[in-house]
Amino acid sequence: LLWNASVKQATAALKKLRVAIVDYNELRIFLPVEIVDLIGPSYPHAMERADRMRSTLRDICIREHETTLTSLQDMGKRDVRRYIETLEGMVPFVAGRMLIYHYSVHQMPADDHLCMMFVEVGVVPDSAEPEGVAAALTREVNADDAIDIHEGLVAAVEAKITPLRKAHKARVEARRTAMAPKPR
Fold first, then answer.
1. Which residue in 39, 150, 152 sits closest to 97, CA to CA?
2. Which of 10, 27, 53, 130 is the most buried (most CB within 10 A)?
3. Do the Cβ atoms of 119 and 125 come closer than 8 Å?
4. Residue 164 pLDDT more than 50?
């Protein structure tokens, strides 16, 4: 829920989902429009987010025959990374957060908001993409510090983020369209 959204938006949406659903399996069978109704149609990328949530939960259910990832606890870090990153509907930012918070796999997530903040303060060029920023951060940040630094960056984005400029809006929309799940 935090991908390309504010902490405040993500927290509010999570509360709404927790009240409305019993477990993730129930969320898996919700229609995307029902998820959008829960989190609100003005939520950033609401329909795409709902489609991705549902696709990811469905893929987990197909692989695991349940909506948990307990089987990953016994896997090596490379296998866990491959598993998470190849889930249908998964975006790199969400995969990165799952990897550092739940599986101790070194990763520095970056979304459009962090990338834009870095562009605005002159750390990266205007052409920078979140995946490139994430890769650079992952190389530069020590694994032991990854969670603390990620949380600091999320807080900085929350405090600094300004409305998207027109050029950024077009770039974000083009990237989002390119990342959209392909129809079957």
1. 150
2. 130
3. yes
4. no
